[in-house]
Amino acid sequence: MSEAALHYPLTRAVLDNGLELVVAPDDGAPGVAVNLWVTVGSADETPGRTGFAHLFEHLMFQGSANVASGEHMATIEALGGTVNATTSSDRTNFFETVPRGALELALWLEADRFSSLAITPENFEAQRQVVKEEKRQRYDNQPYGDLLELLMGQHFPTDHPYGHLTIGSMADLDAASLDDVAGFFASWYRPANLRLVVCGPVDVDEGLALADRHLGRLDALPGGRRAVVPAPKPVGPTVATVTRDVPHSLAYLSWRTPPAAHVEQPAIDLALAILADGHTSRLHRALVRRGGLANEVHRVNLTHRSTSSVAALLGRPVDGVALPRLAEAILEELGRFAGDGPTAEELSRAQAQYEREWLWDLATTSGRADAINESWLIHGSPDHVNLHLAEVLSLTAADVAAAARRWLDPSAVQQLHYVAEATR
Amino acid sequence: MIRPEVTLADPWHFPEPTITRLPSGLTVWRFDLPGQHIATFEVVVPAPLTAEPRGKEGVATVALHAIDEGTVSHPDGAIGELLEGHGATLHGSARHHYSTLGGQAPVRHLHDVLDLFVEVLREPAYADTDIAHQVEAQVASYESRLASPGAAARLALRRVLHGSGHRDGRPASGVPGTIAGITAPDASRWHGSFFRPDGATLLIAGDLPDSDVTAPFHAWGAGLRSSAEPVSLAPAQPPRVVVVDRPTAVQATVLAGVRSVGRSDPRWPALRLAGQAVAGAFASRLNLELRERLGYTYGIGGGFAPGPEASLFTVGGSVRTEVAADSVARILDGLRLADGFVQAEIDDARRYLVGVAPLANETSADIVAQASALAAAALRPDFMNRHFADLLTVTADDATDAFRTEVTPERTAVVVAGRADAVVPALEGLGLRPEVLDLRA
Lengths: 424, 441
Known about the structure:
By secondary structure, chain A is an alpha+beta fold. Chain A is 42% helix and 18% strand.
């Protein structure tokens, strides 16, 4: 495991206005990644005001003092760069990867929109319509489109900060005034809530100087801070059953697990992988290959920055097998696993797979910049990106078994039985 | 503060592989990519799906996806455990005109992994239960595609453009009626006939060891000749306007397409730039119109996608049902190119396609994917660099002329997946003659 510690060089700094940044030089990179995390996500929204964080993911491309609507994206593309943005419950991410000679322009574009965004009635209305189409395209018009919302609903009440989808309620967006959304921007889009990672063929001094020249001129106004997120009230095990027009029935078994930074999260991740990742996993062997109960099994780990995360195992039953029967079989296998723990081979396979996936996440300049920002926000240190793999590879079978016993307790499971109409 | 000036570097070059040929007929393209600690490898074999038995279409996909469930030496999942233990993953894809099987692994495990990969190529066990399981998974996957509006629209466009009478018009992985009867001997027969080194190309990329990474491949199938037959292209089809009825849809998914020329055509560089300017970029004509100006959609995308022999131009997006017909009208009108391209549009498209190349080819997987497509098209690896050079010489008039000769509204097939009760009358209102297409028929 001697190769597990990674050595990506990172230099961390703070601008006078409070904006924090990391420069990660990489001479071999094909472009420079500019990755900005705004530490606001849908979990910072209040009931009746959902969807605002994601709305700004859109509005940020609609123009500012010196940049026309759509020009930011068009400019980067016309330089041969890539550019986009994403929103989660925990952060809003704006990013572009550009040719080395366009780094300063990218930082200038970012500074312009963060300092002078055009929050106009026209832009708001146009993007409200685009967001409605995004919601239809991603959720309402897709099979299983409400599955995530149902799953999270089993763990968080709708008025909990993590109790609504990131895209938000379209009724809330319809009811929002321009002042409402402008107020959201004013309280969150401040230097103190920005983390910039610059990764690529740029030396530290130049990266810091360029960031300071452009983003350093943002006014040092106080930014909003995430309120203390209450722990969701404990609930006993439940079974929710819904029937939908989908091709196949699915059983989701899920648990509340600790926040993303918790020391046991990597062990939970390995436990889930050993149970349900791929055709050599426990559940695949027991229920698909041998048991004739399931056609496929998978795992999901949805981690949260400020409250319980959610881990899930899911299965698609063989025709004629009812979802409760499949769920029971999954829990039986899980109980056995928690008791005995993984074999040495199972653990070593899961760690080898984790290693490839982690190195793959870091294999692109843009992927590495994003991983650095994630390490920073979730673990409090950008350098965690260099240490994480060693942490995962040092876990023992006993660690994984203990995490499974503590966090994947069959008596605490939430079940979602998603029944295909045709098989009722 | 004044907008900073930009300096763009010289165009990037696609890496030059070391090419060797083994006695078995296997051609090897080796790309040494310093710093890429995860290696990617892939075998490309000429295996046109026209060779599948008509009643067992999908057998190529079954044979590929079940290939690592067990080998004669390591049956019943044991081979998968060994591969996973080395941090490797395998994946395969049976396309209409060729198949690929490959994987990824940390470079330090590469020798062990390639030994196992060759074992998979040489002696897949194809146990009856594994084939039965893959048959079920493939039928389920087909049902999932029909349930997804985007995937259903793509299935419909394929049928309309190539005709259901030709293999290219039918799904590569078969339909439930053809998949259901596929057996282990069928899979073995397909694999034995087409997964042969003669005529195949091995692509391998990463921070590779100095040693001969092809050594394990000497054990693969020497003396076997490929039984691949020449590819036949589907005859041209009349353009149709079809609606895939989805009575409960809350959006209409629009997809328009035209078959066009392949990479070897002299107009290819001009078409790539034209496609980017019409539908590929965020600032493309159609995305600016339908998303930014009208708010009809989350986004319009498209462009020319090359295949081994020909290409496909597509443009589409998901729009509000009540503006579906207006969206189709605006898309078709945009394809008419009443106003030819201006130089700035083509310059932007060119800078994107040339400039994004190093970012799009950053990893070993990117290089192998591009190289695999070239090998399947019988093109040399230096094609990409000639293509980048050709892009530099295209004028706005070249792009306009090429696009107008290849894409016209009259030749464009249109698919709308959505509510037929709303969409059909609206399309008729445009003077089109929409037909409702039943994908199960």
